Amino acid sequence: MDELWSSTANVGFSSPAPSTIRAVLPRVRLVLQMWPDLIQKSKEGGLDAIETYVFWNGHEPRRREYYFGGNYDLIRFLKEVHNAGLYAILRIGPYVCAEWNYGGLPVWLRQIPDIELRTDNQPWKDEMQNFTTLIVDMVKQAGLFATQGGPIILAQIENEYGNVETGYGDAGPRYVNWCSQMADSLSIDVPWIMCQQADAPQPMINTCNGFSGCDAFTPNNENSPKIWTENWTGWFKNWGSPDPHRPAEELAFQVARFFQTKGTLQNYYMYHGGTNFGRTSGGPYITTSYDYDAPLDEYGYTRQPKWGHLQELHASIKLMEKALTYGEVEEVNLDNGLTITKYSGDGVNPACFWSNQNSKLNATIDYEGSTYFLPAWSVSILPDCKSEVYNTAKVKTQTSLMVKKRNTAMEASEVLYWSWRPERLGTSAKGFGSTFTVNNLLEQKSVTLDESDYLCVDVGEKEEFTLSVNTTGHILHAFVNDRLVGSQYGMAGQLNFTFERKVWFNPGRNVISLLSATVGLQNYGAYYDLAPTGIVGGPVKLIGENTTLDLSKYSWSYKIGLDGEVRRIHLDRRAVKWHSGMFPTNIPFTWYKATFQAPLGSEAVVVDLLGMGKGTAWVNGNSIGRFWPNYTASADGCHECDYRGTFSSNKCQTGCGEPSQRWYHVPRSFLKLGEPNTLMLFEEAGGNPLQVNFQTVTVGAACASASEGDTLSLSCHRGRTISSVDFASFEEPEGTCGAFEGGKGCSSDEAFAVIKDSCLGKESCSIEITEEFGKSCGTLPAPRKLVVQVTC
User: Fold this and answer.
1) Is Transport one of the keywords (predicted)?
2) Among residues 105, 154, 433, 476, which one has the fewest Cβ atoms lying within 10 Å of its Cβ?
3) Pick the catalytic residue: 3, 51, 127, 160?
4) Is 230 a catalytic residue?
5) Could you give the 3-state DSSP secondary structure of residue 274?
């Protein structure tokens, strides 16, 4: 992933130091054509630096075979950041976690004799040093470190190792020291950081990660800056789970508290999450969407009000930059969680934070003759210690409701015409590499080397029994004599299961085939790399009334991948035969193909795969990831969200009881305008493509409020204009944005008229709210607040 921050000053090496805010942009979770726009929106949001991980398994997919093209063009990405006038932070790792497949490590490492990953093990250290040195040398050659005139001001070695270090015993601290010495020997002339590493040796800078608590974090060296490497803007999503959210007010509160308590640099993880294209999602069971409820959503739109509320926060903090950098700190703790913090000194204009850490009670603070109101769980920023310019709980930015609209480039019927072909199972073509036979049941990723989600094993047998298969996941399809006898998948959080089905055999020789499928490899934890997948040793048994046969040590034949994968059907080669006319539905292991016209305009494109089961999708040969819309999210866990107090990933959820993921991002760069495009689906579980359709994503409604004397601003996206003013009322309406109704207060004819005159037909508008707006609402107490809703 890649991250961003905000502040224009250098990062200091002693405290106090300049305040900096950064955030993640996932370089390889978005197509390179999106990079400039996302980087620019990040800069407009008040950020000063982009941070990126370096994905080892993407750059070295096979040992000593390197790839830095397309979305993996690291040097081009860093140059884009530099061209935008932003700094960069390079998190080399090379372990990244990131909910990325296998934590970003290449699975081929497991083939190296005597290797143990992420510990004091010489084969591992040799490979890690080789890759880290490769990246550093490339960056040096391109002149991208700050001391060379480039944008990179920090680099990171390892990642969150302190969270798992004790699991490696005495070898853990030795490995940490080696990482430090190895990194320092590369002489990059900018500081190295180690996140979540309390025992990071000098000159490494240890940093903090989390939803909260980093305001109280103290580096292990008094001369190190206080850095928050990952402030989680939301959370990742699992198949079978609701959508997690983190409200703008809570996120802003934690950022303000961090800088109130002498913070130097803060990073948003993620500022833009993007999409897990291909087979890059880890977990296991991480969805294809990596939206993360980030300030820039999966499609690159600003998520309002989060993006705008943070933009205003960044601008407010920058007004205090000199005081935060050079001032001395005075802090007064009052009752009930109230804190007054003042930065001041010779030649420095004073700047203040007021914070209310009480999650229930609003409060007032009396300071030098003035009274200030602080909502519960909020921070106020006063750049001159007199006037409040920002409060984390007072959101003044518009709320945008995103909607999906049908593809207007196609015929009114919007029908996709499908052709199909079955996946050839059983005695089909050889898999990736070659087929082989062993008298054992092997761990899956050690066999596939992550070339495919699928591994097929066959054994011949003559008896009549119940088939029992013990597997470590994630999905199992069982066949007898090429006939599917049953399928089963592990539930998220419990991937091990025992598959049992009654089976009937023919006289003579019979063949049992087991197709084992993975849904992302584990990416976190001590020795996570050893977490088993597939049918590891079984046992695989045939259970009868009086006899049990253990087939685990029988002769098993292995094939990596499916026939369609090996033949690269997704590239739509002419040599592949397709059937047209009537086509099967709800039949597992079927390939479907359709052509379509790209939606007109510049709005983001998605494909609605409701009705499909589980599989993988491609557009014009580009993988848009795994799909699994028939895996429904839990019905529990969605309730009214109160962001105040301790925050967790399941505190504010939506989408309970709905498909885990229904819509899948199709980047515009994957599409051809004015000519046919091809959608290819491999359906593993059985589905019906008749409901599949393409839609665009855009702003449907926008809502904003402003008090008299303030400015009300409204905006649509990507060329869309405001088409109607739907609601304008003083005081709080009933309902939510998109469905406002008259509530307390009164509707304002004057406001309606001015807003229509100023906003209709425009992409954006700003209006100063004066007393004239509320003539007909003169009985309401001042200051009156106008609430407006428009349609884009």
Assistant:
1) no
2) 433
3) 160
4) yes
5) coil
